[in-house]
Design goal:
Layout: E1 10-18, H1 20-33, E2 38-41, E3 45-51, H2 57-61, E4 72-80, H3 82-92, E5 96-98, E6 102-105, E7 117-120, H4 133-143, E8 151-155, H5 161-168, E9 173-178, H6 181-193, E10 200-203, E11 214-220, H7 223-235, E12 237-249, H8 253-262, E13 265-273, E14 276-283
Parallel strand pairs: 6-7, 8-9, 8-11, 9-10, 11-12
Antiparallel strand pairs: 1-3, 1-4, 2-3, 5-6, 12-14, 13-14
């Protein structure tokens, strides 16, 4: 097993954008498609992070939005040392409350006694604190679902927050997978912090799904990965099983539905938040 602490150098891409709302959403979408894995929305734009070993200058040059005359973008690129990251999160990570039922907080935040699900997340560089619309939508939907005795798979688990919530909702078996080494280790740390050590955590991609038939499959990943791995997801689902998809813009909804329909999935619920969308589909 890998150490829970991984020394890793990251590259920070920091941008100010006008117009802010639409520009930030487009930029985050393009950055996620070229390998950036963590995002912090700021008053001026966005800060995005990628492992230094995965970064090349050509990645930035490939961003279409930088050539779009409808947007004004100023940006900088610099190396971020691993040890600086925790201090930044402590300054900027505020607790999130979803539907007055689920609290997602850091260890240094005070617990709310009346909350039904209290999740402690030490996010470091991993995606999934509840601040992003897609994680919020996923948490909200899981709160409305009966997970009692279900088998749940969390693909692209990030911090492990969705896997942890699933276990707290009495799922029988939960598996969490992420292709990023930092996210893998961060999930291991967070499941310990929440006394959810029964969750099985795998380092890798769709090849790690295995042969278990899952009742609920969660995939909060960017559009290209969803489309590429969709057949693997459906193959691993039980009949009448649920697939929750997010991590993509509302404009990509029809593209995803076209693919899922061909694979025998039926849309039963959809919700959007600030141009990000969640799909809940059933395998018939």
């Amino acid at each position: 097993m890998m150490n829970s602490k991984v020394e890793m150098e990251y590259i920070e891409f920091k941008a100010s954008i006008l117009p802010l709302k639409v520009g930030r959403e487009v930029l985050i979408a393009e950055l996620s498609e070229v390998g950036f894995e963590s995002f912090v929305e700021t008053d001026q734009g966005v800060e995005a992070y990628i492992q230094s070993e995965q970064f090349e200058e050509s990645i930035i040059n490939s961003l279409n939005i930088l050539e779009n005359v409808n947007f004004q973008i100023d940006y900088s690129v610099k190396v971020i040392e691993d040890q600086n990251w925790n201090a930044e999160w402590e300054k900027n990570f505020n607790p999130i409350h979803v539907e007055n039922r689920c609290s997602i907080r850091a260890p240094f935040h005070e617990k709310i006694d009346s909350i039904e699900f209290d999740i402690i997340i030490d996010p470091k560089m991993s995606f999934g604190t509840g601040h992003h619309e897609t994680t919020y939508l996923m948490v909200k939907r899981l709160l409305d679902m009966n997970l009692q005795d279900k088998k749940v798979l969390d693909m692209g688990c990030g911090t492990g927050v969705l896997a942890i919530l699933s276990k707290m909702k009495n799922a029988q078996y939960v598996k969490a997978i992420d292709i990023d080494e930092w996210a893998y280790n961060n999930t291991l740390e967070n499941i310990r912090n929440n006394n959810c050590e029964e969750i099985e955590v795998e380092f890798g991609g769709a090849e790690k799904i295995g042969t278990i038939s899952f009742d609920v499959l969660i995939a909060n990943i960017n559009r290209n990965i969803l489309l590429n791995d969709m057949k693997n997801y459906v193959k691993s689902m039980a009949v009448e099983g649920s697939l929750l998809l997010s991590g993509f813009f509302s404009s990509d909804k029809e593209t995803l539905l076209e693919t899922t329909s061909k694979l025998g999935l039926e849309l039963i619920y959809t919700e959007s938040k600030n141009d990000w969308t969640l799909l809940h589909l059933i395998k018939r």
